[in-house]
From TrEMBL, chains A, B:
Source organism, top-level taxon: Bacteria
Organism for this UniProt entry: Sedimentitalea nanhaiensis
UniProt domain Cyclic nucleotide-binding: residue ranges: 22-139
Alphabetical UniProt keywords: DNA-binding, Transcription, Transcription regulation
UniProt entry tagged with the keyword Signal: no
GO-annotated molecular function: DNA binding; DNA-binding transcription factor activity
Protein name according to UniProt: CRP/FNR family transcriptional regulator, anaerobic regulatory protein
Alphabetized InterPro entries for the sequence: cNMP-bd_dom, cNMP-bd_dom_sf, Env_Response_Regulators, HTH_CRP, RmlC-like_jellyroll, Tscrpt_reg_HTH_Crp-type_CS, WH-like_DNA-bd_sf, WH_DNA-bd_sf
Stored CDD domains: CAP_ED (cd00038), HTH_CRP (cd00092)
Cellular component annotations (GO), alphabetically ordered: cytosol
UniProt cross-references to Pfam families, sorted A to Z: cNMP_binding (PF00027), HTH_Crp_2 (PF13545)
HTH crp-type domain: residues covered: 153-231
Residues forming coiled coils: none
Organism lineage string: Bacteria, Pseudomonadati, Pseudomonadota, Alphaproteobacteria, Rhodobacterales
Length: 247, 247
DNA sequence: CGTAACCTTGAAGCCGATCAAACGTCGTGG
DNA sequence: CCACGACGTTTGATCGGCTTCAAGGTTACG
């Protein structure tokens, strides 16, 4: 029974996000239980995965690809409030309605669980609940860092902040040396960048050009970015160049 | 042994935040265990409770009073990233360093737990972990709503958004009829409002005057606010006047 | 009464938004 | 093959909202 848009489930043990997703802390038997209630869904770039206000009957993890979380005002102004990368969790246990639009920006594969069985399992499986708490606290920190970007940074600093976040997260996914020039692909259009940064797409374009002109970044095509000096980029972002102090 | 700045612990059963704080789901025996590791601390208005980067040896709940969570850039720009009201939780289990400054804006009483015993208890007490997850998810939603305010709203809309949030939260604390004019005290200076909204204090002042001139709010002194028509205020905030759709 | 903290108001300037036009790339169909 | 249009992007010109700088007002408290 292979419905279009769904795929046969590979084993959790081979899952690329096994050690980072909501199931990261699970033992073999717990994984087996999860495996029995999971299913995969694929979405194409541009597809809306969840509409704000709709009833949500599943929760799940991004396996591969990228999605965005956005809010829209009645007059059409939109603000991105989250960027969903592989291993990130979608949906809120305990609430039936979706609060935001979730849109695939690339082709994407999600590992889904029907909401009720998942909630039941969460109640019995502290490993899942704890991991979800940990991930939610991380997301809260990320959201708060973003509030500083939105509220207090200039357009140039906003762009530099976005680039440095994407660069760092990209580096954390692939096993690369941490210094030397960083190279990555921007997964976002200029418009999506603008929605993330609280700017217009024209301003994003102008500031990207300015950063290129000033040698902070190099561009190949519209999306392929090279950062010759990461600490320079972090300075431009208004962050301490020596990384935040966390423990 | 009554150290200045600490008070004798009243019973959890009489606690004003008993049903909303991190302990809300606890049974009598769990409360008793919590009671044995808790202690109260008081802070005066203006005092910094926790410095960003410092080691945090406790977590806790706001019992009464108001505090703010702020981030500061090297050049002094600051952004408030959270407003802590009675029952709100401070501190992150699993992390030793504080990520933000926590400052008392009014005199405040906190119910504190030393971090290690609390973490141990959390591991054994699903009621606590679940409630904390629930509260963290709520905070994440609030942070994301605030990202829309910071990124896409005009100064006037920002002020109206802040006023409507304070008004609604105030209403939820006292058992008042939900319509008719709303009256409340702003717990924030113009500067604190500016830090919350990503504005300057001058702009806050001007827009407050404008909302008053236009009859959206009435002011008695600088802090005492009357909202004759709540739905009018919500329109000014750019929100749907009929309340968000949640379930 | 005097001072300090907080707030209001005014004038000028700048940053980012808005409006507008043109460019490059890609896929489609004549 | 090339014309065409759709889409994403770049760049220019102008406008306006918010910040900045500055001065004066209000309130509380010694």
């Amino acid at each position: 029974m292979n419905v279009p848009g769904q795929a046969i489930s590979p084993s959790c043990m081979d899952c690329p996000i096994r050690h980072r997703a909501v199931c990261a802390r699970c033992e073999a038997d717990e994984l087996a239980a999860l495996e029995s209630i999971k299913y995969y869904r694929s979405f194409e770039a541009g597809q809306t995965i969840i509409w704000s206000g709709d009833k949500m009957d599943f929760v799940g993890s991004v396996v591969s690809g990228i999605a965005t979380l956005t809010q829209t005002m009645e007059d059409g102004r939109t603000q991105m409030v989250g960027l969903l990368l592989p291993s990130d969790f979608v949906g809120r246990p305990g609430r039936s309605g979706a609060a935001y639009d979730v849109v695939a920006t690339t082709d994407i594969v999600m590992c889904c669980f029907r909401k009720n069985p998942f909630e039941k399992m969460m109640a019995d499986t502290p490993h899942i609940a704890h991991r979800l708490l940990e991930m939610t606290l991380d997301e809260l920190d990320a959201a708060r860092e973003w509030m500083l970007v939105l509220g207090r940074k200039t357009a140039r600093e906003k762009i530099a902040s976005l680039l440095s976040i994407v660069a760092r997260r990209d580096a954390s996914l692939r096993p690369t040396a941490t210094h030397g020039p960083m190279v990555f692909d921007l997964p976002l259009t200029r418009e999506a960048m603008a929605d993330y940064l609280g700017l217009t797409l024209e301003t994003v374009s102008r500031k990207m050009s300015a950063l290129k002109r000033d040698g902070v970044i190099q561009l190949e095509g519209k999306r392929h970015v090279t950062v010759p000096d990461m600490s320079r980029l972090m300075e431009e972002a208004g962050d301490d160049a020596d990384g935040g102090v966390f423990a």
